[in-house]
Design a protein that fits this description.
Layout: H1 2-65, H2 69-73, E1 78-80, E2 86-92, E3 97-98, H3 104-114, H4 121-132, H5 163-166, E4 173-174, H6 189-195, H7 200-211, E5 226-233, E6 240-247, E7 256-261
Parallel strand pairs: 3-4
Antiparallel strand pairs: 1-2, 2-5, 5-6, 6-7
Helix pairs in contact: 3-4, 6-7
Length: about 270
């Protein structure tokens, strides 16, 4: 009888040890999987950064060469001859809606069409202008002096705006250009349809015709000194996107990065 009791205790101990080892093994596998994913993410991020820097170096060389080649690059999706497919595009920064320069009408059209979650776009636009053009008073108070917008993400601090309202639309805004209206020749199609619903198709048709006529290319450097470079490494659904706002004019190193986004860039090359 005593032997049977001892055998039962040993069996229970063995089962507990097996269960403990199983838990430890599962934890080890989970940690190994996380470490593998983290290592892969670091490698992919480094490859994406290197690809973006290669695209910027190419664009810098083309800008400094001058002539007619630079205007012909605008808006076109270009490919780098690398082992991993790398596509990139450069557009002038005034192709987007400026928080620092756009009119009330442009901002109203933007928030009404592209951010339907914003229930009171008029209130949001007034808050934007209250910062750009604070009310004039005989005794101005602290914080009433005009201040430019430094990031489109600052909109999240406004009354009536939440992250869901700006999802997918924040990439169509700019703070690095003071343009009133968007540059129709290079603005994204979704933005043109939001701002000019009645004539967007005509604008896109005329733009397509110009893209087939190299002699008709215009130099966007005449209207802005900043350009947005969009780089995509890999193929969907595993692609990685990087977006940078850069300046080329008068930069000894070739280009200067004004803004860098490798975490939530939302552009597409399908339009």
């Amino acid at each position: 009888m005593r032997r049977r009791q001892q055998s039962g205790v040993v069996l229970i101990v063995v089962l507990w040890v097996v269960a403990l080892l199983s838990v430890l093994l599962m934890g080890f596998v989970a940690v190994a999987r996380v470490e593998r994913d983290n290592a892969a993410d670091v490698v992919n991020r480094a490859e994406a950064r290197a690809s973006a820097e290669a695209a910027l170096a190419y664009l810098s060389a083309m800008y400094n060469l001058g002539g007619e080649e630079w205007p012909r690059l605008m808006g076109r999706v270009l490919l780098l001859p690398l082992a991993e497919p790398v596509a990139f595009r450069v557009v002038p920064e005034d192709a987007f809606v400026s928080l620092n320069g756009s009119s009330r009408e442009t901002l109203m059209a933007f928030f009404t069409a592209l951010t339907p979650s914003v229930q009171n776009p008029e209130h949001v636009v007034e808050q934007i202008f209250a910062r750009r053009e604070p009310p004039v008073s005989e005794a101005p108070q602290a914080g009433q002096e005009p201040r430019p917008w430094f990031s489109a993400n600052e909109l999240l601090l406004l009354d009536g705006v939440n992250p869901a309202a700006l999802q997918g639309a924040i990439g169509l805004l700019t703070v690095d250009s003071f343009n009133d209206a968007v540059n129709e020749q290079f603005a994204p199609a979704v933005l043109l349809r939001a701002l000019y619903p009645d004539r967007a198709d005509d604008i896109l048709a005329a733009r397509a015709a110009l893209s087939n006529d190299p002699e008709a290319a215009s130099d966007p450097s005449a209207t802005t000194m900043f350009f947005r470079v969009q780089v995509q490494l890999g193929r969907p659904p595993l692609e990685r996107r990087i977006e940078a706002v850069v300046a080329f004019e008068g930069i000894e190193s070739g280009y200067q990065i004004v803004r860098w986004n490798e975490y939530n860039a939302s552009f597409t090359f399908d339009e």
